[in-house]
Design goal:
It is a single chain. This protein has about 425 residues and is α+β, with helices and mostly antiparallel strands. The chain is about 60% helix and about 10% strand. Among the domains are: about 5-195, Nuclear Transport Factor 2, Chain: A, CATH 3.10.450; about 290-385, Serine Threonine Protein Phosphatase 5, Tetratricopeptide repeat (Alpha Horseshoe), CATH 1.25.40. The chain has 21 helices and 5 strands. The chain has a 5-stranded antiparallel beta sheet with strand order 1-2-3-4-5. Helix 14 packs antiparallel against helix 15 and helix 18 runs parallel beside helix 20 (about 375-385). The longest helix has 21 residues, at about 185-205. It starts with a helix and ends in a 5-residue tail after the last helix. About 35% of the residues are buried.
């Protein structure tokens, strides 16, 4: 089933083909590595503390939107309206925070340099479990203070300014048409949009034969564009041979691009292609500079693969690197339960409670814990777990005085 997000994303590729959009030449290095790292840590702290005004202020919206408006030579009235609406509606901090499932879902990971600029790399895990990464591209603003001039989003495989350009494209062409006839490049863009729309409509309607015919009719340059290639991968996810070919074609056109690895993980797991999934995670791990969450994913892959020792080892690495990553403890516990390594299950439960507090769920009612709780290690853990729930009375605290007897008790005959 094609992804509507990627369906829309393909529109930008047309402008790229027609020369309407071009990325600026790489500038001189934006800052020192330590400055970029400090910036990343502040962004994480601001978002998790709910300081959204400070978080949003780091984004140079004028630069992002201006880059698009300049590249498309937007008419003045359209430019003014677009810039005003863009800046008034975009609240990056609240948008990100509203999607997170836990504090560990937003994490500054590393900095990397590309094209002369430092990029701060962040992990995003939404409440539904979806994983994404973003790279904030940093440049000095007024007074040399670092600001975000653009960001690269792994799930879309494009810069945010490119996404913005895609959104602005229909309105821009309409504004141009009102001023004067469209140029040959603009007309080519419109024709490409119509062909692309026909192809995507056939995909959504599950008209495979029509979609194949329309695909062959698309211009070669358009078919090779990243946005269209990503949409093609999504459209053939349920076809093993077609999916593999689409991935290979993308890898040849865009070697090392992280979008391919991120978007192919679920398909690999569905097909039980565990080695391919681990290879994708390895490439992502190198790109982002190391992420404990990826060790959690490795652990889950090994559990599906029934390699429980490897699963527990991967979960342990994730926990050691990021103790607040709750999901990694659950992977440790699951792997050891399945391996019947109940001493390690007990250890995992102990580490979980030490980090997050007492487990309130009654595990005696959970079928997957039955054998564990029947084992010596399980009985010992349960005894300590239950004992910890009983409040302790300090030795120096006075004991309650005996209750005053009622008049009837005072006059009643002694039982002796």
């Amino acid at each position: 089933m094609p992804n509507p997000r990627r369906t829309a994303a393909a529109a930008l590729a047309l402008a790229l083909l027609c020369g309407a959009y071009a990325e600026e030449p790489a500038p001189a290095p934006a800052a020192e590595e330590k400055d970029a790292a400090a910036f990343g840590k502040r962004m994480e702290a601001d978002l998790l503390a709910g300081r959204f005004a400070e978080f949003d202020a780091a984004f140079d919206l004028e630069a992002m939107a201006g880059k698009v408006m300049d590249a498309y030579a937007a008419p003045a009235d359209y430019r003014d309206g677009f810039m005003k609406g863009f800046k008034s509606r975009l609240g990056m901090g609240k948008q990100i925070a509203s999607q997170l499932g836990a504090a560990s879902g937003y994490k500054f990971l590393s900095v990397r340099k590309e094209g002369g600029d430092w990029r701060a790399v962040f992990r995003l895990v939404v409440a539904t479990g979806g994983l994404n990464y973003q790279e904030y591209i940093l440049k000095p603003g007024a007074g040399g203070k670092l600001r975000i001039h653009d960001l690269f989003v792994y799930s879309t495989g494009e810069l945010f300014s490119e996404t913005l350009a895609r959104i602005a494209l229909p309105g821009l062409l309409d504004a141009r048409k009102r001023e004067k006839p469209l140029s040959a490049a603009d007309q080519k863009t419109l024709e490409g949009l119509k062909a692309l729309q026909a192809w995507t409509e056939a995909l959504h309607a599950h008209q495979a034969e029509d979609a194949e015919i329309l695909w062959e009719m698309l211009p070669d340059d358009l078919k090779k564009s990243k946005a269209v290639q990503l949409q093609r991968i999504d459209s053939v996810e349920g076809e093993p041979e077609g999916f593999r070919k689409a991935l290979d074609d993308f890898a040849l056109l865009y070697p090392g691009d992280p979008a391919r690895d991120l978007l192919s993980l679920d398909a690999y797991l569905t097909r039980k292609e565990y080695l391919s999934a681990l290879d994708s995670i390895e490439r992502l791990d190198k790109r982002v500079g190391g992420d404990p969450y990826l060790n959690f994913l490795r652990a889950n892959i090994y559990i599906l693969w029934e390699k429980y020792a490897e699963a527990k080892a991967a979960a342990a690495k994730a926990i050691d690197a990021e103790p607040a990553l709750q999901d990694a403890y659950l992977s440790w516990i699951t792997a050891t339960l399945k391996a019947k390594d109940f001493a390690e299950t007990a250890k995992g439960l102990e580490r979980f409670e030490k980090q997050f507090g007492r487990i309130e769920a009654d595990l005696t009612k959970e079928i997957e814990y039955a054998l564990f709780l029947a084992s010596d290690a399980g009985k010992a853990w349960w005894k300590a777990h239950e004992a910890a729930a009983v409040p302790k009375v300090p030795e120096n605290e006075p004991k309650d005085a005996p209750a005053e007897k009622t008049p009837e008790e005072k006059t009643a005959p002694d039982a002796k």
